[in-house]
Amino acid sequence: MTALMLAEMAHDCGLPPGVLNVVHGAHDTVNFLCDNEHLRAVSFVGGNAAGAHIYERAGRNGKRAQCNLGAKNHAVILSDADPTSVVNQLVGASCGAAG
Predict the structure, then answer these.
(1) What DSSP string describes 26-56?
(2) Is the pTM of this model over 0.70?
(3) 76-86: b or e for each residue (b if 16 or more CB lie within 10 Å)?
């Protein structure tokens, strides 16, 4: 499921416009978002260099920043999770579409 699909589903469920925004872009877009006084938080998943830049610049501007650097198939596993099921799901998520 892509970020755009999740955002569309959130909108369809009644999330007001402007609460969740998915933005694609390069350096100018990133800097605009990090510097914009109307935004209070940013979230990023991707490469280390970009994530470090976003985290530093957003923080310098007083924003909350959630940056998952070098991420691939990250997951939160709770203490009551079934280990076999978790392993099967993680392997499927990481390799399931590999061909």
Answers:
(1) -HHHHHHHHH-TT--EEEEEE-HHHHHHHHH
(2) no
(3) eeeeeeeeeee
Position 99 scores a pLDDT of 59
Per the structure block, which two tokens stand in for 75?
Answer: 């997951």
Residue 87 CA: distances (Å) to CA of 17, 22, 71, 76: 37, 30, 18, 12
Q: Are 80 and 56 in contact (CB under 8 A)?
A: no
Question: What does the pLDDT look like over 29-80, one tens digit per residue?
Answer: 999 999 999 999 999 888 899 999 999 999 999 999 998 887 666 788 999 9
Instruction: Give Rg (Cα) of the chain.
Output: 16
Q: Which two tokens stand for residue 99?
A: 């061909």
Task: Judge whether 73 and 94 are in contact, CB under 8 Å.
Answer: yes
Structure token digits, residue 56: 């530093």
Report in angstroms the alpha-carbon separations of 60 from 16, 21, 47. 28, 22, 20
